[in-house]
Design goal:
mainly beta, 2 domains, seven-stranded antiparallel sheet, 15 strands, 27% strand, globular
């Protein structure tokens, strides 16, 4: 499906194309003591009943950020073994004493419930620790409010560019920080990372990023749209590889776009920004001018293409991340980004 979008200039700000609306979580080995018979007047066997111990309930996990496991409850102590009956005095054979009753085994405590994920809602398996991707960024290095270590500012268009982007601790997908964009001014909110160290992977790779849009997300006026780019590859021109257009009813589409709108495809309006972490994946191959896109492990096949010269793919020099939008929203458009990776093989949404 061919869609119409606008470039990062005045033309984007004027774009009022009506979108197509596609309506889119767990004894004791009882030792029975038996009395022995003895002579005499027949001493009676002693009877003793052991008492069972009670297990303590496991303590629940704390509700702090990140996923933490609760402490398992301690196993209850086993009941004591009944005492053997005393031996009778000499004389006629005494009656065999009754064996002491075994104590009831203590109940095992219940394992504590795992801790609830905190504001970030991520999992311990996320992040870059132990990963072997060609490039990985979990936005944990740097101070809150600043640009993450190893990144530089990417000025957008307009007179008020490069504001409202930096590390934040109020949301995260893994670790304790994420990259946060927040602004009402079109053209802002992006940083970039050089791809020079990737070699050939820069121009043929799989990419993956998680994002979260604050809810409720700003909506455009009736009949209008808000075009928001989340990630782009920078070369001779910009290739917008994680790109969205939101309609006034709150639904949005995904698309591949370039600044002069000469390419390419757009999906139906089947998604909504819902205050949940979502995973976006892309595939690019500059040599064959090819592109594929996945959202939450599902391919959006309507965006795929190969051999399309209008895609204007080139030798990429950097990757841009941050919510750059092209029409002014009525309220700040706030987006968090985390767990970015690039590799020769598809990464998936682990």
């Amino acid at each position: 499906m061919r869609l119409s979008t606008r470039s990062a200039d005045a033309a984007d700000a004027r774009w009022t194309r009506l979108p197509c609306l596609g309506v889119l979580l767990l004894g004791l080995t009882v030792a029975c003591a038996k009395e022995t018979a003895s002579g005499g007047s027949g001493g009676s066997g002693g009877t003793a009943t052991g008492s069972g111990g009670n297990g303590n309930a496991g303590t629940g996990g704390s509700p702090s950020g990140g996923a933490s496991s609760g402490t398992a409850g301690s196993v209850g102590a086993g009941g004591s073994v009944g005492s053997a009956g005393s031996v009778g005095t000499s004389g006629s054979a005494g009656t065999t004493g009754t064996a002491g009753t075994s104590g009831t085994a203590g109940t095992t405590g219940n394992a504590g419930t795992g801790g609830r994920a905190g504001a970030g809602g991520g999992t311990a398996a996320s992040g870059c620790a132990g990963k072997t991707y060609k490039f990985c960024e979990d936005f944990e290095t740097g101070n809150a409010g600043s640009i993450p270590t190893g990144w530089t500012a990417l000025n957008g268009f307009g007179s008020d560019s490069m504001k409202g982007v930096g590390l934040a601790t109020d949301q995260w997908h893994s670790g304790s920080k994420a990259l946060k964009s927040q602004s009402m001014v079109p053209g802002e909110e992006r940083i970039q990372k050089s791809l020079a160290a990737l070699g050939a992977t820069a121009t043929k790779h799989w990419g993956r990023i998680f994002y979260l849009v604050q809810s409720p997300a700003p909506r455009p006026a009736s009949g209008a749209v808000i075009h928001v780019t989340f990630a782009a590859l920078e070369g001779t021109t910009e290739n917008r590889i994680v790109d969205t257009v939101e309609a006034s009813n709150g639904t949005h589409q995904f698309l591949y776009n370039v600044p002069d709108d000469s390419c390419c495809n757009g999906s139906a309006y089947s998604w909504s920004f819902d205050a949940k972490w979502h995973c976006a994946e892309w595939y690019v191959d500059v040599a064959s001018q090819s592109y594929r896109f996945f959202t939450d492990n599902t391919e959006v096949t309507s965006l795929a293409f190969t051999g399309n010269a209008n895609a204007k793919m080139s030798n990429y020099t950097s990757l841009a991340v941050g919510a750059q939008f092209f029409q002014a929203p009525p309220t700040p458009f706030v987006v968090w980004f985390d767990d970015l990776a690039i590799d020769d093989n598809q990464i998936g949404c682990q």
